[in-house]
Predict the structure.
Amino acid sequence: MNEQDTIAAISTATGVGAISIIRVSGPEALAIANSLFQGKNLFEVSSHTIHYGYIVENEEIIDEVLITVMLAPKTFTTEDIVEINCHGGIATTNKILQLLLAQGARLAEPGEFTKRAFLNGRINLLEAESVSDLIEAKSSQQRKLALNGLSGRSTKIIQDLRDQILDIIANIEVNIDYPEYEDAPEITQANLKQPVIEIQKQLEKIYQNSEIGKIIKSGLDIALIGRPNVGKSSLLNALLNEDKAIVTDISGTTRDLIEAKMQLNGIEINLIDTAGIRETTDMVEKIGVDKSKKIIDSADLVILVLNNNEPLTAEDQKLINLIQNKPHIIFLNKTDLESKLVLDPTLTNLNMVKGNTKELNGLDALKQKIIDMYNLDKISQKDLTYLSNARQIDIIQKSLQNINTLLAELEKAIPVDMLEIYLRNAFDLLGTLIGETYEDELIDKLFTNFCLGK
């Protein structure tokens, strides 16, 4: 891949639509588009203007179009960009793209436009990742989170933190190299501790808030588990207010995972209805049971459904034991029927909601329990300047580890100049967060997750 190539790709979703947009970026963008355009000479128009005309091939009109011309450096990629707005539809859009490629453009790789914006200094790495997040946003909270990242507000928090660390490093260096320089404050073990504690507090806050960011971005995976025929699928349908899962009186109807999405306080909830967990010799059902057990480990929250109309079974007790160390709620279903379920008094400390899916009792209480457990009611009131993906959170965690180690070493009276390495590590790590320093392989991997044309 040559970063001096002129690239082209379809930027809108493929399919039937009123308009499609094909984007071209690079040194030959104007020349390639102009060779196919019947209208104004694109070399003679002003930047950031739109022009009416036709795309033609050998004097045959391919489509009636509007062409937007944006000249470097005031563009997304900082290169010359031409955007062709044609009529929507696979045949027309693909034909124009083929003509552009035939004239010398190269098909852009996934995320290559945004990658060029990053490499050319138009945006930093946090902002680049926010572009992808904004495209994929499915809720208003995800949109706000991405926009804050794109606006640079999250970047400023990281840059301010790096500046604080750099000030300490600079003063340590001056003390070492120019001990006679009296204007620089002397950095000792005593006066190093407090500014480092302030940095530690800020990193801890960012790390804690990143858990909120992860919930906003990825939502919550909630698994509905229980024995066969306790009402898991009915609970799924009731929460969704639609017949997503098949419900019958036949035990073991659900044999595979059924997933469905809903929104709760602007947060995406991925509900996973699992196969009833029990001992079985049926091979197909056994596969479903095994999947259900694995979901317990991977889900953010487990809702164990128990049948209020039946005595507690050994299988129920096994499931109760299985979820003890997982975030969980016990939903006592079928409270409209005679109560035959006797629970161990030790279960009174567990999160428990009573209700029934027939009369839709207890559903609001169940939703409120989820909201309370994850503070979903407070998320919308906060400034959504959070980090949210695994790469970002891992970097913050490693930076915090370096600062924690530094503070621990301070207690051992280690000389200040030997502790500088931990500050430098944290400074460099935070640099990789915003792309001040990076490895080519990491950048390539990050942008392959983007869609074509972005």
